[in-house]
Amino acid sequence: MIDVCDLKTYYSTGFLCRTEVRAVDGVSFGIKKGETLGLVGESGCGKTTLGRSLLRLIEPTGGRVVFDGTNITALSRKDLRRFRPRMQMIFQDAYASLNPRMRVRESITEPLRIHGLEDRAGIGRRVRELIEMVGLNEEHLNRRPYELSGGQNQRVVLARVLALEPEFIVADEPTAGLDVSVQAQILTLFRDLGRDYHTACLYISHDLGVVRAMSDRVAVMLKGRIVEIGPTADVLDRPCHSYTRRLVAASSADRGFSRPAPCPALPGSPVMVEVQSGHWVEAAAR
Amino acid sequence: MGDALLCVRGLKVGFPTVDGVVKASNAVDLTIQAGETLALLGETGSGKTVLGMAILRLLQPNTRIEGEILYRGRDLLSLPQEEMQKIRGREIAVVLQNSGTSLNPVLRVGDQIAEAITLHRGLKGAEAEAAAVELLERVRIADPARMAREYPHRFSGGMRERALIALALACSPSFLIADEPTRGLDAVTKHEILALFSEINRGRSVLFITHDIEAAATLATRVAVMYAGEIVEIGPVDAVLSSPAHPYTRGLLESLPARGMRPIPGSAPSLIAPPSGCRFFPRCPCSVGRCETEHPGLVPVGPGHCARCMLYD
Q: How far apart are CA B286 and CA A132, in angstroms?
């Protein structure tokens, strides 16, 4: 479904933009139809930049993103628009992703209208269908974001994204800041809907528990690079890279604190080594 | 059992609004022993923070407060303002929620800590500054002498949390209220902050307010679970988390991704007009007829373990 090859996104910062920050530094992976790839890593490792670069919400500096056979990094802005309904993003802060002046009905109608998917009567029917699908009811259609709770707003965002029946979704920590019971509601909903629609998904989170529950495969990101990738159970139960081990140790420690060893610097240019079928780890080139 | 350091009795807190009084706390009883860490577990809007702020008397002046908060036998609610100010910071300190906005952005971090030291410990100038650097070192901020001269925006989320902890520790308080200190931190940073807490907990009473069950399991000796302004379950951490008695606590634990991720249906009730009987009744999978009309009391279900549920009445 989606193939990423040597993707790079650099930012220029500092005095006269002379400092270069390599937020995404040569990342390659693929996601199949109906598959969820979890992306984990600590704050500032480049997870969000990677997610946004895939959809060209941030222009990548180099590399290729191939979506369903088309290299979308080479498309013009105008041609890219045709692909927009097929790939969608869910952001961290649901409240900030909704227009505060729009009622829920308008928010969900907007993408349908812009991409001209339905006629007027069809839109009304579809909006009601969507709002029920995400577990809200028609009464909520007349509310504005500030009249809804965090969990309800995230449901509205989900309805808005699903309106277009996208084939690929980038979900950037959609449950950050939600309570566990609400998080469980949103995640089960998201997982079930993903299954029904066979959506490919990049699920970004720093919560390993959530990623374990949501993903088929997991990629671990450190300083702009993917250092380990493979089937969820393999990566999280038998982590090979020292950084993955540190992450797993930090999130599974219930009692007793052993300070995890710092990740040693990898000498030379790193390459990926396959340790098991489909489970790749970055190792120093010899 | 040690000595009760803090004793909350029948605490009711109400916020008047145009739609009616929001009953954020409904007859809360709570005792904290000297040297213990009590985790106050609950979801957004359950009244955890309100309870913490009520103890510190940091709620809005128009808030309706009833009940007693006894600290070393003195009722904090009836103390004059000046007396309370002496207790706040020196005896009872707080690590506020949201480390991003709890530090003054236009003052150097070291100066903010030194201010508290000057105020409560009477140290001046260079002495207070040295003490501030020492505190930053204690919370493991690398290169504390240099970082003390930096402004908060140069600190990362984890470092700001550390600075706030240093600020709270400035006067070696015997009671610490920590309000969601791990919110918004990534797994590795959270782990480090919890490790720091487990160190400063020693010989100090802590009320650890959190919605993070794992954090509560890591730090607390006892856990109190709040729902809709009430304590619905309280007991030793192992008992509450491994054999939860209240259906809400069970639901909360089953919502965790690691424990099956089975959500509790419905959502938390309005605190303006909460359900008349048991407040969890509309969402409860084990409710019986009288749950709708009778309000359950806290009943013992094990040693030091109580639950507010008809199942045990």
A: 26
Interchain contact, B187 vs A206, CB within 8 Å:
yes
DSSP classification of residue B71? E
The tens digit of pLDDT for each residue in B169-181 reads 998 899 999 999 9
CA distance B40 to A2: 45
Q: Of B47, B108, B32, which Cα lies nearest the Cα of B231? A: B47
Nearest of B54, B49, B84 to residue B66 by alpha carbon: B54
Number of H helices, E strands in chain A: 10, 12
Q: With H, G, I as helix, E, B as strand and everything else as coil, classify residue A204.
A: strand
* Other CB atoms within 10 Å distance of the CB of residue B82: 7
Interface of B with A in 155-184 (CB under 8 A): 156-157, 183-184
Residues in chain A closer than 8 A to B218 (CB atoms): 253-255
**DSSP labels, B194-209:** HHHHHHHTTTSEEEEE
Residue A236: what residue type?
L
- What is the Cα A230 distance to its own chain's centre? 17
> What would the two tokens of residue A255 be?
């009692």
From first CA to last CA, the distance across chain A in angstroms is 34
Query: Measured in Å, how far apart are chain B's first and last C-alpha atoms?
Result: 26
Residue B44 in contact with residue B230, Cβ under 8 Å? no
CA distance B190 to chain A (A): 8
Retrieve residue B196's tokens. Answer: 């720091």
Give tens-digit pLDDT for A159-194: 999 888 899 999 998 888 788 888 898 899 888 888
CA angle A208, A214, A218 (to 5 degrees): 60
Is this complex's ipTM strictly greater than 0.90?
no
**Distances in whole angstroms, Cα of residue A38 to Cα of each of A230, A235, A275, B234, B255:** 10, 11, 19, 36, 20
Distance from CA of residue B113 to its chain's centroid? 22
Whether the predicted pLDDT of A72 surpasses 80? yes
Q: Is the dihedral of CA A40, A42, A43, A47 positive or negative?
A: negative
Which residue in A has a C-alpha nearest to residue B183's C-alpha? A177
Count of other CB atoms within 10 angstroms of residue B220: 24
Interchain contact A270–B (C-beta under 8 A): no
A interface test, pick of B46, B188, B232, B259 with most A CB neighbours within 10 Å: B188
Give the Cα separation of B197 and B206 in Å (integer). Answer: 10
Domains of chain A: 2-284 (3.40.50.300)
Chain A residue closest in CA terms to B45: A179
- Measured CA to CA, the distance from residue A254 to residue B173 in angstroms comes to 27
- As beta bridge partners, residue B93 has B176
